[in-house]
Design goal:
The complex is a heterotrimer of chains A (397), B (601) and C (285). Chain A has 397 residues and is of the alpha/beta class. Helix content of chain A is 42%, strand content 16%. Chain C starts with a helix and ends in a 14-residue tail after the last helix. Classes of the chains: A alpha/beta (397), B alpha/beta (601), C mainly alpha (285). At the A-B interface, α1, α4, α5 and α7 of A face α2, α6 and β2 of B.
Chain lengths: 397, 601, 285
C-alpha cells in the first residue's frame, strides 16, 4: 500500500508522460495475461484442467522465444470460485499488475460479477463460462466466449433427445444450486418450445440419500429420457445406481459432469454408467475409428508425458491452450498489446483453427464456438480425457 | 486518599479532562480515515476497491459489533442480512417487482427491510442461549440463500441480478469509495455514541451480568429489539453497497466464509470496543490480498486466528491497545467511604410507605423454600434477615426482586408488585446487591456504576445514535452521579480502572455504589460483608446505617452477627422458610428458640 | 414410494441421532456443546473410505481404525478447544473454540482429502432396494450404540462415574472421581460414536468434506428437540427429523425441504426452549 515516489510523480504529471513512455517499453515488456482460475475449492476441477493447458501453452511460446521477442507472463489468481475474491483479483490485475488481457474466470457466478468491471476498464477478456447474458457486445464489447453457451449446451442435449434418439417425453432434473435451478428452467422451456412433452421436472438436494422417489415419479409420468443439469457427481452417481436398482433402462442425457471420472468410483457397477450421454465436443471426441481429429491427435501426442490427461478432460486443456494462444496471436498479428489491438484482432477472426474448436468472432457476435461442434458423448468412454461420440451421430467427424 | 471531610470538591471541569481521554481513542480512527481519503493519490483503483470493501464490511461489522461485542450474542450467520440488503436494493433498483427506484431510495427501503429481518433473525436470542442461537443464525443464513435461489422471478435465481448503479458522482471508483467511507465514518460515530451511552452499558450488563441488568430495570427484550433493528438496518445498507461494488450478485457470493469474516473481525478486535473490531475488519479484508498464494487456506487461517484469540488473548486487539489498564494499581489502597455524601445522593423527599410481604409461599419441585412468610420493612430502617443456610433468606430477596414468582402471597409497596418481572423493580425504587458481586469485569468501575442509572436516562436510542442534546445531558448527569456515588463508597480513585482488576471486597462497594444510583427507596443487600476485613466491615456498617438514615429502607441478609446486631433496627430470623422470630436486636439476642436454633451456645 | 421415504428417512435419522448422542456425550462431562460433533461424523466416512478403499484394509480393521482415529480427534477436541475454556464456561468461549477447531478440521480435509464426494465401500453386500445395507446399517449402528451406552452406564463402574460427573461435577470431584480423565474418556467415546455415525452412513452420505456442517446442524436438531443430554430424546428426535426431512424432500422439493426443517426447528425451540423431553431451566440467581 506504500505510495512509491515514482508512481506518485507519474500520476501527478498526467497522461502525456505515460503516453510518451509506452512505445519504448512495449518492445521488450512481457505480454501479461491475467488468469482468473478456481484452482482450489469445490468447483475447481475445470480450473485445474484449464491451468494445465495454460501453463503448457505459455511454456511452449516462451520456449520458442516468445512473441516477437516478448515473453508471455502469467498472473494467476486462485479465486476458489468465490465471486468476491474474483472481483478483488480482477481489479488487482487491471490496476496493480496492469495485465494486457484476462483469461477467465471459469465459473459463471464469478464471471457475472467481474465482466462489468472488465468492461469499465476495456480489458480484453476471454472466458469459458456458459451463462448466456455474459456475452453482450453492447454492454461488454471486450468480452469473448471461447466455449459454448448454455443455450448451445441445451440445444445439443435437446437435439440429441428429440432428433437423434427420437424421444418425445422427457424428465428434467437438476440440483438445488443456482446453476441447477436456472438450467432446469431454461431446459424445460426449450423442450416445450420444440413441442416435446416435459412429463416431470425437479430440483433435488444433492445430499439427498435416496433418489428412488424422484425416479419413480419420472417413470410413472412416462419419461423416455432423463435430462440432468447438475455439477454434483455424487448425486449423478446415485441416480445411475437407483436407475439400475429399479431395472430401468432410460437414457440419461445432460451436463458434462455426467462423464466426470469421479462417477466411475461412485457407481455400484460399471454397467450403471451405460446409456449415459454427456455434453461433449467433436474436437475432443473419438470417431468410429477410435481416433481424434488430426490436429488434436497430434496435440495428445505432444502432451504425452508432459501433461496428465487421465484425471481431467482434454477439452479443458485444449481450451486453456487456445486461450493463451489467442492472446499471443493477437499481439503477434497486430504488433501491439493494447486493448484495441487485441479485441480488434479477435473481432476479425473467422474459423480460427484452435484445438478446442474453430472460433469465429465479429464486432456483433462474441459467441465464437460453433454450435454444430457441441455433441453428446458416451459418458463412460473416457480415454486421455476425450470421449467416444454418443450413438447416433454420423461418421467419425 | 483525599480528605474525607470535604463533601463537595467535584467536578464542573470534565470537558478538559474529557478531551484528554477521548483524543487517544479518536486519533487512530481519524488517522485511518485520512489515510483512506488520500488513497486516490495512488491512482490505483485496486486499492480503491479493497478500501471500499473494507469500508462496506465495516458498516456491517459496526452494527454486528453491538450484537456480538456488546450484547455478547453469537450471531454467526450475519451474512443473511448482507444477502437480504444486497437483493432488496438490487431488485428494487432493477425494477423487478415495482417500477425501478433510484438507488438511494432502494437502499433506504433495504435498510427498513433489514431492520425488520434483523429482529426476526435476532429474536430467538431472547429465548435461546449461545450455541442454540448460533445454530439458529446459521440456519437463517442458509435459508436466505435458498430463497434467493428459488424465487427466480424476482432475484434471478442462480443467474443472479445486476447490482444497483450509483448515481453521479458516486459512479466512479473514487466517488463510491468516498460514499462508503462517509457511511463508515457515520456508523463508527453512531456506534461509538451508543457504546458510550446507557444503551452500550446496558448491553454489556446483559452480556456479563444479566441478573444485575434486570435488577437495574434493563429490559432485555426491548433493548435487544432496538439493537437488532439498528444492526439489521446497517447490515442491509452494507448489502446494498456490496451489491453495487460487486456489480452483479448471485447466491454463491454470500458464502459462509464471509459470515465468518464479519464474526471473527469483532472477536479479533475485542469485545466491547469500536476501534478493535474496525482494525479487525481491515486486517481480515486485506489479509487474503497479501496472502494470495494461501487462498486455499484462507478459511483455515480465519479459524486458526479465532482459536488463538480465544485461547491466548480473549480481549483481542482492544486489550493489546489498552495501555491504561496495564499500569499497576496502588497495592495498599483502602476503601474509605464518605457517608456524609449520601444526603446529596439520596435526595428522597419525605418518608415513603413500608414494603410488606404477605403470606409468601414458594415451592421448588415439592420443597417449600418459603412457607408462608410475612415481612414488614420500614423506610429509614435497617432490617436484618438472618437464619441458617437454606432457611430462605436469599430466596426472600429473590422473591422481592422478582426473580422468583411465588405461588401464593404478594409483595406490596403502595400497590402489589408484579409477580416475577425483575426488570420492573428498579422503577419502584428497589435496588439490590448480590451474594457474588454481579459486575461487568471488562468495563470500567464507573461504567459499572452508571449501569445503575439506566432508568434515569431520558434519551431515546435514536437521540443517542446521533448524540443529540438529551443524550449528552444524560451522560453528563449520569457520570456526575456515578462519581458522586463512588466517592460516597470511597472508590473514586478507581473509577476508570477495569472492574476485573479490583479486589473482591472493592467489588462489593462498587455494587453498593451502583445501587445508590437508583436513589433507592429500598435497598436489598445480600451478605455484603462476606469476604471483607474487620475494619472494612465496620465502615460498611456505618455506610449502611447512614443510607437508612436518608430514608431508604435496607433489608440486610448477613451472617456476621456482630454487624446485624450493631446496625439493625429490626431483625427477622428465618428457619425453614418461616419466620422464627422478629424483633429488635436486643429481643432477638435473648430469644430462646433463636439461640438454640441458630446462634448456638 | 412410502417404503422408500421411510427407509431413507429412518437411515439418515439414525445418523442424525448418533450425532445427537455425540453432542450429548461431550456435553455430559463438560457442559460444552461442540461444533466438532458433525465433523466427527464427516471424518467417520472419510477415514473409512481412506482405510478401506485407498489403503485396502479389511472392513473390520477399517472400522476399528476409523473409530480409533475419530476417538483421537475427540480427545484433541477436549485438549485444544474444551479444557482451556472450561474455567470460563459462563462466557461461552467454547462455542468459538470448537467452531474454530471444526473449521480447521474441515479445511484440512478439503485440502488433503478432496473437495469432491469420494466413494465408500460396501461392507456386506446384503439386501437390496429399501433393505439395502446402506439403509439398515445406520439403524443397526444406532441401536448398538444405545444398547452399548445403557450397558456402560448401568453395569460398569466407569459408566456410573460418567453419570455421576454428568449429574454434578463438583460433587463428583469431591467424591474423588478422576473428573479430568473421565472427561477425556467421554470425548474419546463421543469421537467414536460420531465416527460410527459417519462410518455406518458412509454409503449414504459418501466420504465428503462438506458433510460436517450438514451433520452439525441436522445432528443438533434432535438434541434441541429431544432436550440437551437426553439420549432417548435424541434418538426419537433424530428418527422423526429424518423421516420429516425425506417426506419434505418428496412433498415440497429439494429447495424447500431445508427451509421446512429449519422452520420446524425454530418453531419448536421458541415454543419449548428446553426441548420436548428436556429438563426445566436451571436457577440463575
Amino acid at each position: 500500500m506504500i505510495i512509491s515516489r515514482r508512481r506518485f510523480t507519474k500520476a501527478a504529471m498526467g497522461a502525456s508522460m505515460v503516453g510518451l513512455a509506452r512505445p519504448a517499453i512495449a518492445q521488450t515488456e512481457p505480454i501479461k495475461i491475467g488468469w482468473l482460475a478456481a484452482l482450489t475449492g469445490p468447483s475447481s476441477a475445470p480450473g485445474v484442467g484449464f491451468n494445465r493447458g495454460v501453463i503448457f501453452a505459455t511454456e511452449s511460446i516462451n520456449g520458442a522465444g516468445g512473441v516477437k521477442g516478448r515473453k508471455v507472463e502469467l498472473i494467476t489468481r486462485d479465486t476458489q470460485g468465490d465471486p468476491t475474491k474474483a472481483v478483488n483479483a480482477t481489479q488487482e490485475m487491471i490496476s496493480q499488475a496492469r495485465v494486457h488481457a484476462i483469461w477467465g474466470p471459469t465459473n459463471s457466478g464469478e464471471s457475472l460479477a467481474v465482466t462489468p468491471i472488465m468492461a469499465r476498464a476495456k480489458m480484453p477478456n476471454i472466458h469459458p463460462c456458459v451463462v448466456d447474458s455474459l456475452i453482450d457486445v453492447q454492454k461488454f464489447p471486450n468480452a469473448f466466449r471461447i466455449a459454448p453457451s448454455n443455450t448451445q449446451w441445451d440445444d445439443a442435449v435437446r437435439n440429441y433427445c428429440l432428433a437423434i434418439l427420437k424421444l418425445k417425453k422427457v424428465a428434467v432434473i437438476g440440483d438445488t444450486t443456482g446453476y441447477g435451478v436456472s438450467a432446469v428452467k431454461a431446459s424445460v422451456a426449450g423442450f416445450k418450445n420444440d413441442g416435446a412433452e416435459v412429463v416431470y421436472q425437479a430440483n433435488i438436494d444433492a445430499t439427498q440419500p435416496d433418489l428412488t422417489p424422484d425416479l419413480l415419479r419420472a417413470r410413472n409420468a412416462g419419461a423416455e429420457a432423463i435430462v440432468i443439469w447438475s455439477v454434483s457427481t455424487g448425486m449423478e452417481a446415485r441416480m445411475m445406481n437407483t436407475r439400475a436398482a429399479m431395472g430401468w433402462d432410460v437414457p440419461f442425457v445432460g451436463h458434462p459432469s455426467l462423464s466426470s471420472g469421479e462417477i466411475g468410483s461412485l457407481i455400484d457397477k460399471p454397467a450403471n454408467w451405460d446409456k449415459v450421454y454427456a455434453v461433449g465436443y467433436r474436437s475432443c471426441s473419438y470417431g468410429a475409428d477410435g481416433k481424434l481429429q488430426g490436429r488434436n491427435q497430434e496435440l495428445v501426442e505432444r502432451l504425452a508425458g508432459k501433461v496428465n490427461l487421465s484425471d481431467t478432460l482434454l477439452w479443458w486443456v485444449a481450451c486453456g491452450i487456445d486461450a493463451v494462444e489467442l492472446v499471443a496471436k493477437a499481439v503477434e498479428t497486430r504488433g501491439s498489446s493494447s486493448s484495441e489491438a487485441i479485441t480488434g484482432y479477435w473481432n476479425s477472426l473467422s474459423k480460427y483453427n484452435g484445438y478446442f474448436g474453430d472460433y469465429s468472432y465479429s464486432p456483433t457476435q462474441h459467441n465464437g464456438y460453433p454450435t454444430a461442434d457441441v455433441v453428446m458423448s458416451a459418458a463412460s468412454s473416457a480415454k486421455n480425457g476425450a470421449f467416444a461420440l454418443a450413438p447416433g451421430y454420423s461418421g467419425g467427424r | 486518599m483525599p480528605d474525607t471531610s470535604q463533601p463537595t470538591i467535584h467536578s464542573d471541569a470534565p470537558a478538559d479532562i474529557g478531551w484528554r481521554v477521548v483524543l487517544p481513542k479518536v486519533l487512530p480512527l481519524v488517522a485511518l480515515f485520512i489515510f483512506a481519503v488520500l488513497l486516490p493519490l495512488t491512482d490505483n483503483e485496486y486499492w480503491a476497491l479493497i478500501t471500499t470493501r473494507a469500508a462496506i464490511y465495516w458498516v456491517l461489522v459496526a452494527g454486528l459489533n453491538l450484537v456480538v461485542g456488546y450484547a455478547g450474542q453469537l450471531a454467526i450467520g450475519y451474512v443473511a442480512l448482507l444477502t437480504l440488503g444486497a437483493y432488496t436494493t438490487s431488485v428494487l433498483a432493477a425494477g423487478n417487482v415495482l417500477p425501478p427506484l433510484p438507488t438511494f431510495v432502494a437502499l433506504a427501503i433495504a435498510a427498513v427491510a433489514g431492520a425488520v429481518f434483523g429482529v426476526v433473525v435476532g429474536l430467538p436470542a431472547l429465548r435461546l442461549r449461545t450455541f442454540y442461537f448460533a445454530m439458529a443464525t446459521l440456519g437463517f443464513a442458509t435459508i436466505v440463500t435458498q430463497v434467493a435461489l428459488a424465487w427466480e422471478g424476482v432475484t434471478g435465481g442462480g443467474i443472479g441480478i445486476s447490482g444497483p448503479e450509483m448515481p453521479a458522482p458516486f459512479n466512479t471508483a473514487w466517488g463510491f469509495l468516498y460514499l462508503c467511507l462517509a457511511l463508515a465514518a457515520m456508523v463508527t460515530w453512531a456506534t461509538s455514541n451508543v457504546a458510550k451511552s446507557r444503551f452500550g452499558r446496558a448491553l454489556i450488563a446483559v452480556r456479563d451480568a444479566d441478573v444485575a441488568a434486570e435488577a437495574n430495570g434493563i429490559s432485555k427484550p426491548k433493548l435487544f429489539v432496538t439493537i437488532f433493528l439498528f444492526s439489521g438496518a446497517v447490515a442491509a445498507v452494507a448489502g446494498g453497497l456490496f451489491a453495487s461494488l460487486q456489480t452483479y450478485i448471485t447466491p454463491d457470493a454470500f458464502t459462509f466464509e464471509l459470515s465468518l469474516l464479519f464474526f471473527i473481525a469483532v472477536l479479533i478486535g475485542g469485545r466491547g470496543s469500536i476501534l478493535g473490531p474496525l482494525i479487525g475488519t481491515i486486517i481480515l479484508t486485506i489479509l487474503p490480498e497479501i496472502a494470495a498464494p494461501l487462498a486455499a487456506w484462507s478459511t483455515f487461517l480465519y479459524a486458526a486466528l479465532l482459536l488463538i484469540i480465544v485461547l491466548a488473548m480473549p480481549g483481542g486487539i482492544a486489550a493489546l491497545l489498552d495501555f491504561k489498564n496495564r499500569k499497576p494499581l496502588q497495592s495498599d489502597r483502602a476503601i474509605k467511604p464518605r457517608p456524609t455524601l449520601l444526603g446529596e445522593i439520596l435526595k428522597r423527599s419525605g418518608a415513603g410507605r413500608p414494603m410488606t410481604l404477605k403470606g409468601i409461599v414458594l415451592t421448588f419441585g415439592g420443597v417449600r423454600a418459603i412457607d408462608g412468610l410475612d415481612l414488614n420493612i420500614q423506610p429509614g430502617q435497617v432490617h436484618g434477615l438472618i437464619g441458617p443456610n437454606g432457611s430462605g433468606k436469599t430466596t426472600t430477596l429473590n422473591v422481592i426482586s422478582g426473580y422468583y414468582a411465588p405461588q401464593e402471597g404478594e409483595v406490596r409497596l403502595n400497590s402489589p408488585l408484579a409477580r416475577g418481572a425483575p426488570e420492573t423493580r428498579a422503577g419502584h425504587g428497589i435496588a439490590r446487591t448480590f451474594q457474588t458481586p454481579r459486575i461487568v469485569g471488562e468495563a470500567s468501575v464507573i461504567d459499572n456504576v452508571m449501569i445503575g442509572g439506566w432508568i434515569e436516562g431520558q434519551s431515546s436510542f435514536v437521540e443517542t445514535l446521533m448524540s443529540l442534546p438529551r443524550h449528552r445531558q444524560d451522560e453528563r448527569s449520569l457520570e456526575a452521579a456515578a462519581r458522586l456515588a463512588l466517592r460516597a463508597v470511597g472508590l473514586e480513585e478507581l473509577a476508570d480502572v477495569r472492574a476485573d482488576r479490583l479486589q473482591h471486597s472493592e467489588l462489593r462497594f462498587v455494587e453498593i455504589a451502583r445501587a445508590l444510583m437508583l436513589k433507592p427507596a429500598f435497598l436489598l443487600l445480600d451478605e455484603p460483608a462476606a469476604g471483607l476485613a474487620t475494619d472494612e466491615i465496620e465502615r460498611l456498617g456505618q455506610l449502611i446505617k447512614e443510607i437508612s438514615r436518608q430514608g431508604t429502607g435496607v433489608l440486610l441478609v448477613e451472617h456476621h452477627a456482630d454487624l446485624i446486631f450493631d446496625i439493625c433496627d429490626e431483625v427477622t430470623v428465618l428457619n425453614l422458610g418461616r419466620v422464627l422470630a422478629n424483633g429488635t436486636p436486643a429481643e432477638i439476642r435473648v430469644h430462646k428458640e433463636v439461640i438454640s436454633a441458630y446462634l448456638g451456645a | 414410494m412410502l417404503a422408500s421415504i421411510l427407509a431413507s428417512g429412518l437411515a439418515v435419522g439414525a445418523i442424525y441421532a448418533l450425532i445427537g448422542i455425540t453432542y450429548n456425550t461431550m456435553f455430559a462431562t463438560s457442559r460444552v456443546m461442540s461444533f466438532t460433533a458433525g465433523q466427527l461424523g464427516m471424518l467417520g466416512g472419510v477415514f473409512g473410505s481412506l482405510f478401506m478403499l485407498r489403503l485396502g484394509w479389511p472392513p473390520v480393521i477399517g472400522l476399528l481404525a476409523s473409530l480409533g482415529a475419530c476417538a483421537l480427534i475427540g480427545v484433541v477436541t477436549e485438549i485444544v478447544a474444551v479444557r482451556p475454556v472450561l474455567k470460563s464456561l459462563e462466557q461461552h468461549l467454547y462455542v468459538l473454540s470448537t467452531l474454530a477447531l471444526a473449521l480447521m478440521i474441515q479445511q484440512v480435509t478439503a485440502i488433503e482429502w478432496s473437495t469432491e464426494p469420494q466413494p465408500f465401500p460396501k461392507l456386506f453386500g446384503i439386501g437390496s432396494g429399501v433393505f439395502d445395507e446402506k439403509f439398515w446399517l445406520p439403524l443397526v449402528a444406532c441401536g448398538l450404540t444405545i444398547a452399548g451406552l445403557e450397558l456402560l452406564y448401568r453395569k460398569t463402574l466407569v459408566g456410573r462415574a460418567f453419570l455421576a460427573v454428568a449429574e454434578d461435577n463438583f460433587a463428583a470431584r469431591a467424591l474423588g472421581l478422576p473428573e479430568r480423565n473421565l472427561r477425556i474418556a467421554s470425548y474419546a467415546l463421543a469421537g467414536a460414536i460420531g465416527g460410527l455415525a459417519g462410518f455406518a452412513g458412509g454409503q449414504l452420505l459418501l466420504a465428503f468434506f462438506a458433510n460436517g456442517p450438514l451433520l452439525n446442524f441436522y445432528g443438533f436438531v434432535p438434541v434441541a428437540l429431544g432436550g440437551l443430554g437426553n439420549n432417548r430424546g435424541a434418538v426419537i428426535g433424530g428418527l422423526a427429523l429424518g423421516v420429516f426431512q425425506q417426506a419434505a424432500n418428496f412433498l415440497v422439493g429439494g429447495i424447500f425441504s431445508s427451509v421446512a426443517v429449519f422452520v420446524l426447528f425454530i418453531v419448536v425451540l421458541l415454543a419449548a426452549p428446553q426441548g420436548l423431553f428436556g429438563a426445566p431451566a436451571a436457577r440463575r440467581v
